[in-house]
């Protein structure tokens, strides 16, 4: 369609000023224009305008129809439903979450990984350990469900818990079998792997796109993602996508003992597996495979961004389990970063949620490893001084995998005269409060990070806390992302977390209705209200994490939720812990995994009146549910356990993880609340204290027998 003519009439009049004839013409124009952009977005994956501009067209169309109801066209965009981009995929919950991987960058990192694994499993230092090395494919992960050998569902990773159902599209991929062949097929099977686009097919696709005047993709990964997330599967069918299988959701359900055997089974069932995969036994063998793969990288014909190492034995994998969102039994060894040289145009200071002032390099855009980089991390004040980075300098920028690009060094040969050393601000650029570097009371050293002291009066901190509050692992409110939070804050709609939950009620009474605001409409506003309602009930772990307390990440939040059980109890205890002589303070410090720094940070948060007031206000609006950590029934569920002395069969880490999996709480020292003390050889004061308190004392073997039972 030739759109030039339609744009001629864009000298827009406000809806109120349109005559009847103008309105008629304008509705025709809008119907065509919206249809044109729908086509670009849905079928060609090449939008020309932003979502906001698109929504504005729809809003204008609806406003005119509201004023002239008799003019509504039979093909009006307001009558078509569900055309909003990418709302088209059904949600696909993963029965077993899809996880990510921890990263390593050097031989030392990998040796540390192997040591950690051995320590956790209580193996001898340097003992042989079978580990599989396989390329890390740079595509997108997919979960393929087979029932009786037939592909019934394909789901993207999404947030790891819930993905999108892309079955129709995946069925167009030749390398993914619709029906499995071979022996020992389980009734149901979830195969996980990576969908990717080969270089050759990527070049052909881009040449085609260019010819058609459609969007050109920046790299094969984006092209693969764009091709898979097509609402029209006939478009996916025209793109050549490929696949490698690399794991199953529930390995224990297969009667196999090793990861390597799983890969062989995959092959026999008809899945492609990566031919560079190797079984290794120590760090030197792993490094040899890594170097070999890195050498062939350029000629492989598809993108990889590292090598993944996985403990081969499935029994050991099971014992090792997971920490946060990544398995303890695997690690990604990333390739060395790619580098480029560009000019530093400015140094911007960003203020984070905890007040940290972070310098960000604003760069003349440059392509680093297939991705355009326009800003990079400068770490902190000392780093800028050490590298003597000055605005106007030419700098080396590097990017490794999905890590934020970094400024590595200045190219001094290229420095022009007259550049001034950078002066790091000592007042917050967002609120003008003093920005200070704290002194560590123990080391008496200055903290590397300068922090704004403005707290609740600093708009940057407030906005960052709000963004954290709605983020994926916190309240996770659909349709309320970074952009919307910034706009809502600037417009005065949301100034504190609680405002999110009173927004709809206040909006109804407001003259400035959200549905009339730029980029919004009836439907999108209604969707937001629904999304907020959906999140009024939240688990205690997410709630704790959402508050954005310094040093309280997801793992700590979970530890706290597990320990305190319900929100009122937690609040009361946190406030009481403000008195460092209190039982509450002792108890907090005694929670396994919570150190002095975290405890101090929690205490400081709850000694701040505004913080407590905000939490209280929130609790008027939301229901915080005690976290049910999978109701495990075991002989030790809900018991408080302390480990002391040397454990001989398990490591401390494994013992703790196992106890928690079985529903017990693990504490660091013996108190009136301790139910069981597991004492190995060399146990001292804790054993004595336990005996005094009449606490049940078990040997490691007795503990193992107990939990087995
Ligand atoms: S194993 C629980 N193996 O890397 C283990 N992942 O950074 C989960 N990936 O989301 C992953 N090649 O999309 C594994 N050979 C491989 C892989 C691989 C690519 C991706 C996968 C995952 C991401 C984690």
Spatial sequence of strands, sheet with the most strands: 2-13-10-3-9
In the CATH scheme, the class of the largest domain would be Alpha Beta
Binned strand content: 15-25%
What is the CATH topology assignment of the largest domain? D-amino Acid Aminotransferase, Chain A, domain 1
State the CATH superfamily name of the largest domain: DNA ligase/mRNA capping enzyme
Q: Count the E strands.
A: 26
Please state the overall shape, judged from the principal axes of the Cα atoms. globular
Give the helix/strand class.
Answer: alpha+beta
Helix content: 25-40%
Number of domains: 4
- C-alpha Rg, in Å? 29 Å
In DSSP terms (H or I, runs of 4 or more residues), the helix count works out at 25
Q: Which distinct ligands sit in these coordinates?
A: 2-(butylsulfanyl)adenosine
Termini separation comes to 72 Å
What number is the mean pLDDT? 90
Contiguous low-pLDDT stretches (5 residues minimum) are 1-11, 81-86
In CATH, the architecture of the largest domain is 2-Layer Sandwich
Largest sheet: 5 strands, mixed
